[in-house]
Amino acid sequence: MDAVNTVTPSQRNISILHVLQTVFGFDSFRPNQEDIIRAVLEKRDVFAVMPTGGGKSICYQLPAILMQGSAVVISPLISLMKDQVDAAKGNGIAAEYINSSLDADQMSDVIRRLKGNKIKLLYIAPERFAMPQFVAMLRDLPLSLFAIDEAHCISEWGHDFRPDYLSLSGIPAKFPGIPVTAFTATATEKVQQDIIRKIGLKDPHCVRASFNRPNLFYQVSPKTEISQQLLEFLKGHEGESGIIYRTTRDSVAGTAEFLSTHGIKALPYHAGLSTDIRDRNQEAFNRDEVFVIVATIAFGMGIDKPNVRWVVHADLPRSVEGYYQETGRAARDGENADALLLYGPGDIASIRWHIGKMEDSGERERAEERLREILRYAESSVCRRTQLLAHFAEQYPGNCTRCDVCAGEVVREDLTESARKVLSAAVRTGERFGAHHLVDILTGNPTDKIMERGHDALPTYGVGREHDRDWWLALVRELDAAGCLVRGEGRTAGYGLSGKGRLLLRGKETFLGTRSSVERSPQERTEPALLDGPAQEDLFQSLRHVRKRLAETRRLPPYVIFSDKTLRAMARNRPTDSTGLLRCPGVGDAKLAAYGTLFLDAIREFLSRAG
Ligand code: ADP
Ligand code: ZN
After folding, report:
1. Residue 462 is part of a domain; what is its CATH number?
2. pLDDT tens for residues 170-215?
């Protein structure tokens, strides 16, 4: 008999909150967590798209604690499982994993404890589900729920397809009556439907959380002297963990070496390095032994580290989707973090070169479209957040205050006259042509296409010679991002004018655009909220030392002990007894018992020094 079904709804509310506070040490739920937990407790299947850092783990760990039997968590990365299990154990939850890294003895020990109903959370790699014996063993166990992490890996439409995941197909049918939950941080509607169908979820409770990450500050700057710009940026982020993304292995190696010879320890990560070296470098980053990783996008899904404080893209990423996911690796702990994109015209040329090498014309077209979208993001003076969220079909009104545009750092000029020239060229040619043709008209470029159509006779022909091609192309993208120009449907579709564009053309609106932006100085870039006065910063640093020493002796990543957010709260509140410590987010009963004394001692010592 399931204990959960014997309690009334209000008793359940109390117990859910009680577990959140005593086991996880949090006062309240993040958006969607509570709904999902309720659905699971009612034994419904769940499908949830939540951004990285949205707090997916609690959605299955908490009901697992309240329900009878073991919860099976399917997670794609063996390298992460140990940390995930350690983190759960740190909160006092009986957790284990089964994967190829266990020897026969360890494996049978885990299975024995499973059969004895001693394990609440069991982490498993997906390939186990291809083994009928293993599945049969699971069917004999009392199970509470299934949680499929990174569920998009089951879809060929997604960007991370893993054939292993196909063996998860049909779990709901094989385990009737046991709720199956699927989580991902990336899924378009199409991928969502594909995942639900492939797994075979039954009438799932669906959640699409907002993709807004309010704690990230988005900034775009022109790339001038990349090495110097990186040094300058890093000066403002000393002692903070961060990732520099570059597109090629050579530039990754070069940048890591350059930084290291300039006094900033940085490790490389790319697919050309051996698995050993990659694992070692990632481990060093995880354990705060090195703060800077220079990586290609091969450095991805495995990053569970919550205190990544900044992400720099030193080259233009190939898509907005990729950019969002990569910047999303910062600030999982909910503290502030910086996302800086540096790009120059050279980046466009190198992406175009890659596109040119693609054989499939459909693929080429999709890549072109992705390039146009990321360029609109990088070059326009529309709130960066509004643009990123538009990619996920979310409407965001702008004025976010946490991007360079909204913070007033992007210099805007009145470009009304130039904008009208573009719009007029579009109208005079029947609103059927793309950016390049419009710019050929404005700059007076007598291409075959221009001459054949007699566009050299238009009054707008050559009226834009005061600027070069790139300048005009960027303006077209900006007008697109601002919603003045809209693209028609289909392959050859050109630009037409929106209502807003028509007002602008008729002189009823002005257009403020950006053709230059400024670097923020490192001092300005550091968020005041992180400083909290020098004394608090001192205490925070001592607490970090305590955590680091503890992490070393217990051979755990520091964040498994406490997150930065928890340490910040300790530094701010300075609790001197266990009650006070329990009030800090992230401190539950188990962690209080395991680490409380050490941290309280450090705080008391600090207060006596200060006092
Ligand atoms: P995801 O898997 O969605 O990326 P995690 O489950 O790793 O996210 O959670 C991200 C961070 O947010 C973790 O440090 C976690 O402890 C914290 N967190 C989760 N839920 C809450 C909550 N309700 N209140 C405060 N912090 C939370
Ligand atoms: Zn903004």
Report:
1. 1.10.10.10
2. 999 999 999 999 999 877 788 899 999 999 999 999 999 888 999 9
224-265 confidence digits (pLDDT tens): 889 999 999 998 899 999 999 999 999 999 999 999 999 999
Query: Residue 371: which of 325, 316, 419 has the closest Cα?
Result: 316
The verdict on 270 and 360 lying in the same domain is yes
Give the residue, 275 or 411, on which the prediction is more confident.
275
Q: For 17-61, give the secondary structure using H, E and C.
A: HHHHHHHHCCCCCCCCHHHHHHHHHCCCCEEEECCCCCCHHHHHH
Mean pLDDT of 479-496: 79
pLDDT tens for each residue of 42-64 = 999 999 999 888 899 999 999 99
Judging by beta carbons within 10 Å of its beta carbon (0-12, 13-18, 19+), is residue 238 exposed, middle or buried? exposed
Determine if ligand 1 sits within 6 Å of the CB of residue 55: yes
Domain count, the chain: 4
Per-residue pLDDT tens digits for 224-233: 889 999 999 9
Instruction: Tell me the CA–centroid distance for residue 558 and ligand 1, in Å.
Output: 16
Q: Do residues 566 and 584 lie in contact, with contact meaning Cβ atoms separated by under 8 Å?
A: yes
Q: Is 400 in the pocket of ligand 1 (CB under 6 A)?
A: no
CB of residue 54 inside a 6 A radius of ligand 1: yes
Tell me the two tokens of residue 593: 């018992």
Do 251 and 328 belong to one domain? yes
Burial class (CB in 10 A: 0-12, 13-18, 19+), 356: exposed
Distance 21 CA to ligand 2 centre (A): 34
Q: CB-side exposure of 35: number of CA atoms within 13 Å?
A: 13
Q: Is the CB of 29 under 6 A from ligand 1?
A: yes
For residue 184, the surrounding DSSP H or E stretch is strand 180-184
Query: Considering the entire predicted model, what is its pTM?
Result: 0.70
CATH code of 279's domain:
3.40.50.300
Q: Which of 208, 228, 254 is the last residue of a domain?
A: 208
**Residue burial 542-560, b: 16+ Cβ < 10 Å; e: rest:** bbbebbeebbeeeebbbbb
DSSP letters, 361-428, are HHHHHHHHHHHHHHHHHHH--S-HHHHHHHHTT----S--SSBTTTTT-S--EE-HHHHHHHHHHHHH
Q: Are residues 285 and 305 in the same domain?
A: yes
For residue 544 and ligand 1, the question of a CB distance below 6 A is answered with: no
Which range, 9-23, 353-367, 497-511, has the best average confidence (pLDDT)? 497-511
Residue 89: exposure state from Cβ atoms within 10 A (0-12, 13-18, ≥19): middle
The protein residue with its alpha carbon nearest to ligand 1, atom 10, reads: 53
Distance 76 CA to ligand 1 centre (A): 19
Summarize the confidence of residues 379-405 as an average pLDDT: 89
